[in-house]
Amino acid sequence: MGLFSFIKNAGAKVFGIGKTTEEEAAEARAAANAKAAVEELRIEEAAARNLEGTINDLQLQVEGLRIFVDDDMARISGMAYNQATREKVILVVGNTLGIATVDDQMTVEHTEPEAQFHTVASGDTLGKIAKNYYGNAMKYPVIFEANKPMLTDPDKIYPGQVLRIPHLNS
């Protein structure tokens, strides 16, 4: 009869040994995906620890602070000293490159009224923002103080940044 030639890695696995090229490729893809998922988890854990460190460096008082990052969402838990601290922690996390959503699960030890939030637009200044919210551009220091220590200079705000706009004390 003679010899017949076949492609070794194509066809059914009859002997229970070896793998087809497709099986090997699928296993390689699965291993690469698993490795990428582990690396992404490490990056997200490192990002969460860095954010926690930043919040501690800013001396924002949150007992039991925990941050979890999953893709572009961050979840924050713990007990903030007061509402202002809670809002500042949310802003520190939310104004971080790569974070699009903050899931705030913090509680507050000393309650007070919630502030409003303002997303800075191109051309905004603290004076313009104060004029919009308070009717007086000269109230910009209230907004500046409410966003310390994240803001270090009233002239250094940027489009897309979110700021706290506290209620004025009468």
From TrEMBL:
Q: Which UniProt keywords apply?
A: Coiled coil
Against PANTHER family, the record matches this protein to: POTASSIUM BINDING PROTEIN KBP
Coiled-coil annotated spans: 31-61
Question: Which residues are in the LysM domain?
Answer: 116-165
Entry protein name: Peptidoglycan-binding protein LysM
The cross-references to PROSITE patterns, in alphabetical order and at most eight, read: LYSM
Please report the organism this UniProt entry assigns to the protein.
Psychroserpens ponticola
By its UniProt entry, which InterPro entries does this protein fall under? Bact_Kbp (IPR052196), LysM (IPR018392), LysM_dom_sf (IPR036779)
Q: Name the source's superkingdom.
A: Bacteria
Q: Which Pfam families match?
A: LysM (PF01476)
Q: Would the keyword ATP-binding turn up in this protein's UniProt record?
A: no
Keyword Coiled coil carried by entry: yes
